Fold this protein.
Amino acid sequence: MTIRVRFAPSPTGYLHVGGARTALFNYLWAKKNGGTFILRIEDTDEERSTEDSVAQIYESMRWLGLHWDEGPVRQSDRAALYQEALRKMEAGGHLYRAFDTKEELEEIREQARLEKRNPIYDRRALRLTPAEVQAKLDAGVPFVWRFRVPDEGATRVPDTLQGEGECVFQNSEIGDFIITRPGTIANPGGPLYNFCCAVDDAEMRITHVIRGADHLSNTARQILMLEALGAAIPQYTHLPLILKGGKKMSKRDVDADGRFPVSVSARRDLGYHPEATFNFLALLGWSFDGEREILTRDEIINAFSLDRLSKSNANFDEDKYLFLNGWYTRHLPTATIVARVRPFLEAAGFDLASRTDEWIGGVVGLEIERCKLLTEFPEALRYFFAAPASYEEKGAKKFFTPEGLALLEDSAARLETATDWSHDGLEAPIKALAEEKQLGLGKIAQPLRLAVSGRTATPGLFEVLHVLGREETLSRIRRAVEVMRAAAP
RNA sequence: GGUCCCAUCGUCUAGCCCGGUCUAGGACGUCGCCCUCUCACGGCGAAAACAGGGGUUCGAAUCCCCUUGGGACUACCA
């Protein structure tokens, strides 16, 4: 039997990293087994679904390389299918109409709370006589369809991960759930999530449902409907949840924290790599061998298996994500990094018109070990595009002293007579100066570094001077000297 | 409150199913040392965990029970 899995997001917000991980595991399971990965958009909630979200979900999945084999299938296009399933279940005696108002239902819940019971519908609609039902229908009283859960027995959710192979729910604890929005005969209410999900899983012949553990109790209901429909029950894998601050990631206020947003697109905009994200997400609840953690897409696909999934919830480890991103920044081909950094440099307003990819690659290469996120490059590279507007305060205090000033002027004098502006050609005269002064190279280099870059931490000083060129270097030193004189006359 | 799920270093985890090889392995983070013109990268090293209590067993991180803790669900959302 060929494996068929689906990722079924609701477009009520941007795809977040938790959803992306669910999509990833479905994708991996399909790829590993030569199966089919289906994308299904669960947009039955017209109020909350937006086209913007739909577009962003596609975009984020493509960015991560989670290409789907079938779909996207939109539930909003499948009304006829749900209508047919509804008729089938009704004919089987699995459904009944309920005319209760929101207020009545709230009362039932409140009562249950007081009695410390699970709030379960009391089936008052089921006690209506056929004549009473007909009267309400004739009067146009809105109703919803409820699924009649069997009185006895239990519903077993076959799960590869949670429980000991299955999770058991007593039917008496489930309660007759609602499967449509309120409507009338003339104007029927639309189908609800649980219902569509079960119908679609059956219709699409889904073999494995891999989704978050927050769906565990829904699954019992979906299995009940699947049985009523006479459909096969897929194998379920309820993934442990990704926690953020000890709580489930919330769809709302997705990107409330600008530094640690949860939407995939916001992460991309912050300069995270798809490779790092793919790798990191795969390791969130799954492990390769417990030793290796930096893995290629193919290695992950080949090694992926459901039985190496963890059962317990995982905190979203920002430090590790950032570390991995830094690793990929350092190890991805330079051309890739340059292509990805370019837009960030442009956005920062740097003039790239006269800059070749080779030149950009050069300066990116110099700063790459100090940058984990692509968004860090503009600030890191700023001094290659413009003379420092200010000098690092701590460094200025330490190196812009009378002694530092003298050293800077001496350095400038040596550099002015330098004929060879290569790394070695620059190093030689400065080293000679250090020896004459009986100082460590750092003593000379630090004031120079600060003068040309405004910073106390940069790549090798002579590489920097080489890139800046003679004129630019000397003019920056002159400016620094002026600033120093002005500050301490 | 009810139902369900989960429980190894601060965090992500390996080991658990098939008890002894575990003085519990790796990674991130932290700290120290080395490399070094600075920062970073890299290298080396350190501190750091089987939630608690009962069983079963010659022997338990591994099996069973209880307690405790954490999470999810508890919509005419998905």
In short: Residues 268 and 274 of chain A are 8 Å apart (CA to CA).
